[in-house]
Amino acid sequence: MSLLVVGLSHRSAPVSVLERAALSADAQVKLVQDTVAAEPATEAAVLATCNRIELYADVDKFHAGVAELSTLLAQHSGVGLDELTPYLYVHYEDRAVHHLFSVACGLDSMVVGEGQILGQIKDSLARAQELHSAGRLMNDLFQQGLRVGKRAHSETGIDRAGQSLVTFGLEQLAAGADVETWATGKKALVIGAGSMSSLAAATLARAGVAEIVVANRTFDRAERLAQILSEGDDTDVAARAVPMDAVPGELTRADVVVSCTGATGLVLTAEAVAAAVEGRTGEPVTEIDVPSAPKQPLAGPSLGADENCPLDLAAEQSGFSVLGEAAVAGMAAAELEQHAAWVDNGTVDIRETGRRTPQAEIEAEAELIGALAATAARIGRIPERRRPEPVAGFVRPAPALFLLDLAMPRDIDAAAHRLAGVRLVDIESLAEASADAPMAADVDQVRRIVSDEVAAFGAAQRAAHITPTVVALRTMAADVVAGEIARLDGRLPDLDERQRGEIRQAVHRVVDKLLHAPTVRVKQLAAEPGGAGYADALRTLFDLDPETVAAVSRAVDSTTEKDRPV
Fold first, then answer.
1. CA dist., res. 103 & res. 489, Å (int)
2. Whole-angstrom Cα distance, residue 38 to residue 69?
3. Is 336 helix (H, G, I), strand (E, B) or coil?
4. Is 50 a catalytic residue?
5. pTM of the complete model
6. Which of 252, 265, 328, 344 is least surrounded by CB atoms within 10 angstroms?
7. What secondary structure does DSSP assign to 234-287, as a single string?
8. Residue of 50, 105, 260, 309 with catalytic role
9. Are 276 and 401 in contact (CB under 8 A)?
C-alpha cells in the first residue's frame, strides 16, 4: 500500500472555486467513509480548512487511486470533476509526506508560519480515528506531522515569518496602522463561535477593543464564548451574546465585524451592510467606481453590437485582467473559437469612427481570441481577477465599518467591496496581500527540518514494513527448533532434564546467531530508499507463508493501535 494525497488549496485554485468546493462537517465524514469503502483505499483522512481541501489515503494502485479520490472529491464538493480537475494537485509516497509536513509547519499556509493548522491537523486525525478510517499509516503520518510542526515552531523563528490568519486580517483592516492603536475603543461584532471566531474574538480583546458582541446560531455557544472573554485575566473587555436575528441591529452599532460561520449562504448581504453604514452615518451609501487602468478592447467599442456575434460582448464587466478577458471569462473553448472565426471572417467592418477595420487588426484580434480559447481548453477557464487594478493616486473614502470575512464559503457579500464607507477583507484579498509578504530566513531552516523528517519517516516506514516478515521468519525458526528438540527427545529418552536444557539452549543459540546478522542487516537495507523489495526477497528465500506474515502485521497494528494518542 502507498500514501496518496489529492487536493486543492489557495495555491492551486481561485477563491471562487475553493468557496464552492468547501465541505461541511457532515460532508467530510461521508467523504472519508466513501473513500475507505472504495476499492483502491484502505485508510483515509480529510484535511479541510478555510483555504484547502485535501484527501489522504493508503492506496494499492496509483492511477486507480488518483481517479477514485478525484471523483470522490468532486462528488462530495458538488463541483463537477471536469471543472475541478485543473485545480487539483497530487502527491505520492515521499512527496505526500513532504507536503503534509510542510503544511503542518505553516510553510503552505496563506500566512506563512501560522500555527492554527496544527489544531486542524489534530482534528482531522481525531475524526479519522473516530470513523476507524485511520490505520497504522494515517496515525503515524498525522502524529509525526504534528510533532514536526511543533518542532518547527520551537526550534526556529517561523512564528516571526507570519501570523495567524486572524492577525494578518486585522493588519489588513488597519491598513498599515498599528493594530492595537487602530482597535482601541472600537466595538466589535463576532459572528460565529467556532475555533476561528473564538480566536478572532480573543485577538480583538487583546488588541484593546471596548466591547465584543458574539452572535451564533446556537445561543449557548455564543454565551459561553462571551463569558470566557469577560473573565479573561489578560483583557478588560465587555462581552455579551446575542441571537443571530439580532445581527442587523448590532451591525449598526459595530465598528468592526468578524464573521466565520459554517453557513452555506451569505450571512451579510451588501444591502445589509449598506443599511448598517447608513444607520451609522445618516447618509445614503453609494458604490465606489474604482477607476482602473485603460484596457485594450477585444475588438473595438461596438464589437458586441452585430446581431451575428456569437458572444454578448456588450455585457462585459470590469474586474478581469487586460486584453478583453472580461468579455469572454468563463466561456467554453468552443464558443471562443466560434468568436475567433467570426472576427477572422471580417464580420466587424465598421467601428464607432466609421472606418473599416484594417485586416491586420482583425487578424490580431482573431489570434488573441484563439489564444484565449487555448487557455480555456487547457485550464478550464479564463484567468479572473475580482477587482480591476486601480489607477495611481486613487484613494478610497475613509471607512466607517470594517469587515473581516474568514469563512469559506464566504459569509459576507463580495459586493460590499464597492460600498463607500466600508473596508472588507476576505480570504481572496488576504491571498492577494500574502502573495507579496516577505519570507523570513527561518523558513529555510524549517524546510531543512521538513526534509530531514521526511527522510526519517520514510526510513521508519520501510523498516516497519519488513518487521512482520522478520518476525515470521523467527517464528518459523523457533518452530523448526521445537520440532527438532521434540524429535531428539524421542530418540534419546534417557537424557536428564539438565542435559535436555543444555541441548535446547545450544540449538537456540545457533539459530539466533545465524539469523541475527541477516535480520539486522535486512532492516537497515529496507530502511533505505528502494528497500521495499527486501521483504519479498526474505519471503521467497525462506518460503514464508504470506498469510503468516499478514497475520503478524495485523497483530502488530492492533497492538500499536491501543495506545495511540490523539
1. 62
2. 9
3. helix
4. yes
5. 0.61
6. 265
7. T---EEEEEEGGGHHHHHHH-SEEEE----SS-SB-HHHHHHHHHHHHSS---B
8. 50
9. yes
